[in-house]
Structure formats: C-alpha cells, structure tokens
C-alpha cells in the first residue's frame, strides 16, 4: 500500500465515540399553524443527566412527548441504541425501557404505594391461581416495592400499603421516580419534577436523580429551575423556537449565559 493509500484509508475510518442511547434527528411537529418542533435534534449519552431548557412554548414538552411516544412527529427519526424506533403510544416506549415521570405524576391517589408502583404491570400469582383466577401476587409486589424504595433511600415511607394521597408532595414524587427507575431499563425522562415541591422535598428529588444516575440510568430533565439544572446536569440542551440551538457544559457557562442563549439575548456558542 502506498503512503497515499494509507493516508486515505486512515482518514476514511471514523473514530468510534460513545453512541447516544436515545437520539432524534430533524423532528417536526405542527399543530395547525403553530410549529412546535422545527427540525429538532436531540442526543442523550449513556449515564448522563441531560437537562432540556427553553422559554415557554419553545417546544420542550413536545420534544419529550415525541421521545416517549405521547406525540407522533410529522417527520424525523428517533433512535434507541442506534436503531430507529416508531413509538405509537407511551406504552410502546415503556416496553422499550423509556419511562417518563410527568409533571402531573399520573399516580392514582386512592391506591397504595405498592399498587401505584405496579400500576399497569401487576404481577399475578404463579400457576392456575394467577393464570385462571387472575389473583394478584401481592406479597411479591409488596416485597419488590419495599426493595425498590429502600434502594433509593425512600423507606421513610413506613407502610407500603399506605395510600398515595396520604403522602407529602416529595414522597409522591419519590414514588413516581422509584417507579420510573424500577421499570425504565434504558432511559428516565422527568418533566419538571421539582416544580410543585418545597425546598426540602426538591432536594430529596435531586438526590434521587443522582442516585438513579449512579446506578447507570441516564436521565432527561426538563426544568425551568436553573439552580437545579446547574446542580445536577452533565450537559444542557437549549431549545428555542422549536429546535435545539446549543448544548452547553454547565461548567463552562453561567446561569445567566444559559438564560441569555435561551431567550435569544446571547448568540449560541457554535
Ligand atoms: N396539543 C397541542 N395543540 C395545539 N398546540 C400545541 C399543543 N401542544 C403544544 N402546542 C403548541 O406548541 C408550542 C410548543 O409547546 P410546548 O408545550 O412543547 O412548549 P414548552 O417548551 O414545553 O413550553 P412550557 O415551558 O411553557 O411548558 C406552543 O406554541 C404550544 O402552544
């Protein structure tokens, strides 16, 4: 092989970096005349907390809904572990390992903590009791619920059979996070998880997020709370007018820079 050929073959071989777990290219979504997503891109890397920030109406929720199957984009591609996916419902995304903790939580207040953890995925007793009589395997579900909550340091909740309506806001959020961490095998998405919480409860939820990250699950955090974002995020995706305009490292930018980029007052870094 000549020197020239060697040089060509070297430059032609791309250097393989880590591959995003979840990514999107060119997502578009219109609601009538409103363009909610305008060629939006997205990348979530393994093991990171990625914050998504943007002004009201920038399209953050629509982006997240597209990633978790709650909205079907008009165009664009979404990939999980490098393979294209076409989720038609949040259930399909959940089956693929993407769990979302919504702002309104989607917990059932009258049900117990254990029942909420297993909502929609109830375990049946083995054998005919479960197969034919559809009896629930309550003891296994309670044991697993207890294990999951202890793992995440949430066992300040004393009684797993306590109804969710009797819990504090932070404890409820904890149950929702525990559910997402228990079943989200690939990605956990959290939409404004601290918006309705007090200082102490917010702190607990931020610690929970760091716990989930330490256990290897990447998190997408949508938040308007800059101190929280800067405290936990490894990278910050800035969304503006329906698209990603920058991804910044919180160590390299101040909160006011991030807000200025987000609102258009400062040019996004190239
Ligand atoms: N179901 C819908 N029907 C019509 N318009 C919608 C719908 N969902 C979102 N939009 C519009 O799409 C745009 C983006 O909304 P989106 O909720 O994604 O923004 P956001 O960045 O999450 O805002 P916020 O921070 O205020 O929650 C907005 O102009 C919004 O009014």
Automatic annotation (TrEMBL):
GO molecular function term, any single one: ATP binding
Keywords: ATP-binding, Nucleotide-binding
CDD domains reported for this sequence: ABC_Carb_Monos_I
Xref: Pfam families: ABC_tran
Domain ABC transporter span(s) in chain numbering: 22-266
InterPro entries, sorted: AAA+_ATPase, ABC_carbohydrate_import_ATPase, ABC_transporter-like_ATP-bd, P-loop_NTPase
Protein name, entry field: Sugar ABC transporter ATP-binding protein
Protein source organism: Devosia yakushimensis
Taxonomic lineage of the native organism: Bacteria, Pseudomonadati, Pseudomonadota, Alphaproteobacteria, Hyphomicrobiales
């Amino acid at each position: 092989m000549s020197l020239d050929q060697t040089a060509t073959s070297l430059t032609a071989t791309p250097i393989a970096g880590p591959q995003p777990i979840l990514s999107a290219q060119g997502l578009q979504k219109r609601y009538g005349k409103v363009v909610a997503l305008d060629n939006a891109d997205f990348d979530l890397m393994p093991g990171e907390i990625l914050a998504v920030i943007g002004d009201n109406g920038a399209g953050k929720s629509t982006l997240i809904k597209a990633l978790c199957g709650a909205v079907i984009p008009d165009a664009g591609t979404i990939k999980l572990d490098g393979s294209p996916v076409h989720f038609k419902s949040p259930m399909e995304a959940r089956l693929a390992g993407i769990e979302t903790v919504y702002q309104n939580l989607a917990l059932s207040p009258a049900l117990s903590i254990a029942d909420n953890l297993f909502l929609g995925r109830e375990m049946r007793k083995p054998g005919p009791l479960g197969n034919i009589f559809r009896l629930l395997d309550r003891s296994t579900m309670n044991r697993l619920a207890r294990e999951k909550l202890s793992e995440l340091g949430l066992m300040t909740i004393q009684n797993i059979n306590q109804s969710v309506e009797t819990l504090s806001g932070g404890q409820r959020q904890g149950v929702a996070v525990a559910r997402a961490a228990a079943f989200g095998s690939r990605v956990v998405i959290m939409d404004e998880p601290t918006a309705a919480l007090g200082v102490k409860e917010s702190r607990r939820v931020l610690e929970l997020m760091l716990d989930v990250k330490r256990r290897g699950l990447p998190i997408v955090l949508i938040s308007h709370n800059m101190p929280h974002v800067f405290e936990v995020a490894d990278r910050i995706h800035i969304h503006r007018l329906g698209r990603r305009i920058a991804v910044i490292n919180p160590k390299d930018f101040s909160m006011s820079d991030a807000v200025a980029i987000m609102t258009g007052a400062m040019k996004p870094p190239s």
